[in-house]
Structures are given as C-alpha cells and as structure tokens.
Amino acid sequence: MTSEAMLPLLDHLCNEARNSMQAAFGLAELQPEPVAQPEWHAWLQASRSSADRLLRTIDDLRELAAGPPQVRESAEQFDLTLCVGEVALVLNFAGESDGAKLMVDPKNQPVLIYHPRQALEQLLARVLKLVWKLTSSGTAGVSVEAAEQDRVRLSIFMPDAAPAHKLSVWMNATEGCVPRETSESGLILAAMVAGNRLRALGASVEFVDHTIVIHFRTHMEGLREEGAERETPALQVLVAEDCDESYALTALQLRNEKVDRAPTGLDAVKQVKQRRFDVVFMDVQMPGVDGYEAIRQIRDWETISGNARTPIVVLSSDDLATQTRRAAQSGCSGFLRKPVRMHELREVLEPLRALHGAR
Length: 359
Hints:
By secondary structure, the chain is an alpha/beta fold. The chain has three domains: 63 residues; 142 residues, Histidine kinase-like ATPase, C-terminal domain (Heat Shock Protein 90); 122 residues, 3-Layer(aba) Sandwich (Rossmann fold), CATH 3.40.50.2300. Helices cover 50% and strands 18% of the residues. It starts with a helix and ends with a helix. About 2% of the residues have low confidence.
C-alpha cells in the first residue's frame, strides 16, 4: 500500500482513537465524589498520558506518510541563541523529567538567522524534548555558534554517547530505512518527523563523539518575506497571576502578544471593566478574591452592563475534576492545567487570532 493510500486510513484511525478516548475519559470523570481519591486521579492522569502518547504516535506516523513537509510560514530575522534558550527554559520549567536538565551554554553569543520562526521553535522543542527523554540523569548541554560562511551550528551534548548516537541515526532515517527497535517506536517516529522537518528547513544532522550537531543556514531562501502578506495584529492579553515566576514564564510564551498583568483577582476585574481584552488567562490561587470569584464578578458585570463576554481561560494546578467543575460554575471559556505548554497556548490563541484578523 502506498503512503498516499494510507493517509485516509490513518486519518480514520486517529479520529476513532480520539473519539473513543474522549468518551472513556469523559465517563471516568463523571464518577461519584467518593471515587475522587488521590489513587484514582493518579491512575486517570497516567492513563491520559498513555493515551496522549498513542495519539502523538499516530499523528507522527501520518506526518511521515504524507511525505516531505511544506514550509508555508513566512520567514523573519531573529536570534537563534535566544530562541533555543527560551525553548529549553520552558521544557525545564515543565518538570516532565526528574533527573535530566537542559543547560544552554551561557557563553553563547547572539546569532541572527532568517527562518520561519514558529516552525523552527516547534522543531527545537521536539528535538530537545527527545534529548531530554533519552537523558536519564545529568545535564544535556546545548550551544549555538556561527560557523563558516552562512552556516550556524547547534550542538547538543549528551552525557551518554549511546542514546546521542541513536537519536542522530533516527533523525537521519528515511522511509524504507526505519530502525527496528520496536520498544522505542514512539521515540523513533518522533525523531524521524524531526529529521524530515530539519531537512525541509535546509538543515542537516551529524553525530560527533557525544554530540549531536545540527547545521543550519543563516538565511533560508525561497520563503515569503516577513510582511509580504497582511499580518494580524497582536492580541490584547491580560494575565492574572500573583506569582512573579509563573507570570514571567507565561509572558515569555506570549511574547508575540501585547500582555498586561493583574497581580490580584480584584485588579483583573478592574482592568476588564476599563478596557477590552481579546483573552484573559486567570490563575485561580490568588490572595483575597481568587480566580473563580474574579470570573464570576466579571460575568455579572458583563450581564448588567451589556458588554460582550471576554474569553477567560483558567490556569490551574487543581486536579482535572475540580478544575472542570469550578471553572464551569464560574463561567470561564476554557481551562489549561499548569504547567502550560506552548502548543496548548497556541491552540487557544489561533481561533482568537483568526477572529481578531477578520475584524
């Protein structure tokens, strides 16, 4: 069967898997309150993580079957060193690994490149997450430096040479040369997708000693110039967060938007009454008026004043059942569980951006 013939089957498989898992987990969350014990929620979270891995594997398999990816995003000039540091910071902050850490060389100098930034950020996140998962303990070092002529070198040092070599082999694998380590099939597919995306950006991968070396061109030809098409203005975003570190991370993830901060729930209510925001990200654990009460006050004011409802997304570390129940009662538009990942924020922002651009 050809790859083209497999695509509809993979689409069907992915849709069926998502629908089945959504139904199963939805029923699990409707269990009566006595079932809401720590062991139950731990099991539910572990099951969700397993389901997410399965869905990501199906998505990666579909992407490989679709052939070489097409880069449609316009290019822009940015600092690759800063970009790598931001991605590593978010991954470290997420705390998905108990032992391993990503350390960006503090001696790195700014290196300007001209590439599609979002596509490159997503690629870096995928590669560094694979490095992280394959580094059982210790620190994986990352450095960026300008090379000869129009080249840039991204070097990733891993404490153990064996997984570093495996990862480089996987990223260089092509269709028909799939490695046979079935116990690591999910990681292999993710690495092969990363390799395909690297090649689409004109990059290459090699293994040197304990180090994975990725070579980029400083200027990627053949892409639309930044601003060649009408750009959608940045979204007006309010982040209600009392913790400085959490706000700094969220603001970093939202760096392309116009971000204001409300350090308390009452301040969030005040700012929403004073001006219109495209979206509010509301932390729930704040002194005085918490996030849920702040949302209720905003919704009451909107009803009385006749103002349009502002999209409000709850940011919470509460368990899913508590978060879903209390957020729905307060009148929020959606919720994200801390620590928030970049792709989850993008899924929230893209529909708002499309609506904002249509105004």
